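Cross-check.
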Amino acid sequence: ATRLGFCRRASHAVEDIAECPVLAPELAALIDPLRPLIARLAAAGKSGDAIATLTDSGIDLLIAAQSPPDLAARQALAEFADARDLARVSWRTKRGADEPVAMRRRPVLTFAGVAVETPPGAFVQPSREGESALAGLVREGVGDARRVADLYAGLGSLTFPLADDRAVHAVEGDADALDALARAARTSGLRVSAERRDLARDPLAGDELADFDAVVFDPPRIGAAAQARALAEAGPVRVVAVSCDPATLARDARMLIGGGYRLAHAVPVDQFLWSARLEAVAVFERGGRSA
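Predicted model, tokenized:
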């Protein structure tokens, strides 16, 4: 039998679901219609992922499976997109090989008034409310810094809210996300520059950091150990850390404090409802001075 749901905690076993109270209504309404589609597409005994993102132009659906779709699967996906008024349906057999199967509207997310055309399966915050809270805390955290580096920038959910009154340099390792951010930046008229860089292997360091009055970093759950170490050695007056994992935030904070920063304040943001995970925004200062 086909199961459609979430993995159990610390397990790959899928727990079948009928509803999810924390989903946006548009996404929750997709659960039941997806069942027959997945059953039709899935090979017996095989697993896959369905990633649905609610964008400003509708739902962007990505099916990640172990083999490419045949003609019948493509037709089923196109019919499903039309019946459910989806913006786009794509198919992924391996990372970096996403193929749009049906494009009815270009999926777009708007950050601080800047429209960003999103690649399939792009990382976004769990909710608009959480995203807005984080952006507000980060803006408050950088203070009046005029030159800011936004590290692990993703699609620009923090970049563009910061850039309305300052210069922002966005750094991201994912090529698709950075391309989307850079295209939006070029048409925005804002002072945003973009750089592709694997910050875990090649963090901003030394004289590079001297160009900025403040640095923001929002890494994946594994944290930003290499970047925190580089900041501890040569970082600017103000650093704002955004984290979805308190343990890695504590580790990175110890490195910053060991390098002469002090923790000015930290604010939790509980956007992972009914989960032990917790987002936080922490502001660090050197010498107690503000930016």
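The chain is about 30% helix and 30% strand. The longest strand covers residues 261-269. Passed to J.P. for a second look.
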